[in-house]
Amino acid sequence: MTQSQYGNAASRLDDLVAPAEVPAQRNGGGPRSADLHAKLDERAAEIVARYPADRSRSALLPLLHLVQSEEGYVSPAGVEFCADVLGLNKAQVGAVATFYTMYKRRPTGDWLVSVCTNTMCNVLGGQQVYDTLTEHLGVGHDETTSDGKITLEHAECLAACDYGPVMTVNYDFFDQVDPDSAVAVVNELRAGGRPQPSRGARLCTLKEMSLQLAGFADPREEAVADGLAGDPTLAGLKLAQQHGISVAGYDPNTPIKGSQTGDKPAPATTRPAAATGSTAPDVKAPDDKSPQIRTAETRNPDAKTPAPDAPGTKAPVDGAPAGPADAKAAEAAGAAANQPASDAKPAGDGGTDAQERSLKSAESKEAASARSELASPAVASEEESDK
């Protein structure tokens, strides 16, 4: 590698740790790092104080969010600030900041619009939504509009498959979007509005969201709200209730038994199955349990279910259990199929016979060596002199 190539490689490595600029080491640090200290030192000290003194580096994640709440991304000066506060080097901070996608390493718009293009949402039209926004906004993945308001990205999964296709704005959900509704959302954002997400609180900007993630409450009205479970999420539960499927012996009203009070659990109650509307007659299993309940008991046994290896318990097996003779025959067949290794010794464990042969060989070599020493002239002359 030539000197110029080495210099280029080192420059690229510096860009990974702190892109665009490398501030001077702080005795005071670079000017932007000093500005961050003036603005964020008080809150940074509050974050660090949440952790034990010898575990202060655990504060790195909220500190990175704090930096992002000030600058809109984790800048090189922000990396230096976090390293300064926690006594780390910039490479350690940069490694964490580049690992998590919620930390942005380049200036990001007020509104981060993420469109899921993974399997479920893609099948339901997520890719069409993303392509439409790309054309409408004139930007691609991880790019920001010219007015600096919107950054677009495609996401591999937003953990809301039951509401697909989904889009998030600063990680708040807009469910079951289509190209037209997605364009309407971004148009309202560019016009200065804050459209209401499908679930949860009203929207906040990327900086406001980062401040919350750093552990500081948002004082705005309606900044926090509970997201209620919708019909797609509850579909499975409703089907289970409709068909009378439940965990065996489970009663949500059963109190937890206290170790001191001696409370006894209330007896389990069962609910009759609701009418399914089907004209086919219901046929019960021979043991009067539905297949779902039998499966649940097999996978999640309760205290009354005996363990498979408990004394007096016979574990079910497929077919007749193998007897001792069968086991020995199988062992002999396996040993016969064991081909010799390259040194003509068995490839597997040779067993006790091989060990005995090795011991006998060692003993015979030791005895031969002893006889050879006794028969040597030096030993004979030494014995004559002793006499």
Automatic annotation (TrEMBL):
Residues 284-302, 354-368 have a biased composition (Basic and acidic residues). Its cofactor is [2Fe-2S] cluster. Keywords: 2Fe-2S, Iron, Iron-sulfur, Metal-binding. Residues 265-281, 315-344 have a biased composition (Low complexity). Pfam families: 2Fe-2S_thioredx. Residues 248-387 are annotated as: Disordered. Gene3D superfamilies: Glutaredoxin, NADH-quinone oxidoreductase subunit E. CDD domains: TRX_Fd_NuoE. SUPFAM superfamilies: Thioredoxin-like (SSF52833). It comes from the Bacteria. InterPro entries: NuoE-like (IPR002023), NuoE_dom (IPR042128), NuoE_N (IPR041921), Thioredoxin-like_sf (IPR036249). Belongs to the complex I 24 kDa subunit family. This is NADH-quinone oxidoreductase subunit NuoE. It comes from Plantactinospora endophytica.
